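Hey team,

Filing this mostly as a record. A colleague (T.K.) asked me to run one chain through the structure pipeline before their review meeting, and I want the input and output archived in the tracker in case anyone asks later how it was produced. No errors, nothing strange. Just documentation.

Input sequence:
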Amino acid sequence: MLEIEKLKGRLFAHRGLHDIDKGIPENSMLAFEKAVKKGTDIELDLHLLKDGNVVVFHDDDLRRMTGVKRVLKKCTYDEIKNLKLLATNETIPLLKDVLELVSGKVLLDVEFKYDIPAGDLESKACEYLDNYKGEFIVKSFNPYSVNWFRKNRPSFLRGQLSSNFKGEKLNFLKKFVMKNMLLNFITKPDFIAYGLKALPNKRVEKYRRKGTPILVWTITSNEELEEAKKYGDSYIFENI
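Output structure:
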């Protein structure tokens, strides 16, 4: 597994090196292929389908990326495998195919989405990650997901995703707990991934002083990258 110090000073391509103006949609095989060719570390998202397949996709539903009005977790892979991403020739990839493509050439930052109870997606994804020969880290906004890895895959470097959740449809208590990462004393994350627009943050600063790597997301310009360097150790970027 990756040593914690090797997590510092990294640049992760957010959902791959995507550029829709060039026909390269996010979280597509082409976006990951471009990143591998450039030697750029990759951030990607996972969802579990109802047939047990693990796909690389960000949203809970298919509308934005494919135009189809369906909830992703209620689909089978056969039902979605031919859907085109943002009117390109790219389709929704399976995790196993992305792992085969990357094959350890760059570091993977694997985000676990949270539209189902923690444990189901994590355990299914580990059927592939356990046998993957390359280096990767795992993270989630869901502290129950982070805790699953603490209990079941303690050797994986795990991270707590957070931000200020401004504009999110969350009740006050849940937003307060997640913003301030109040369950970290249980989940014991190895790193913190925090939104740039919510920085500076005193809790994040406290973790950094203690040596916990801070992964800042999402950087969209060189100016933002310079700003992020004040608060973090590694960075998730896109379109720069």
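Quick notes for T.K.: Strands lie at 11-14, 41-48, 54-56, 108-112, 136-140, 158-162, 191-195, 214-219, 234-237. The chain has a mean pLDDT of 96.
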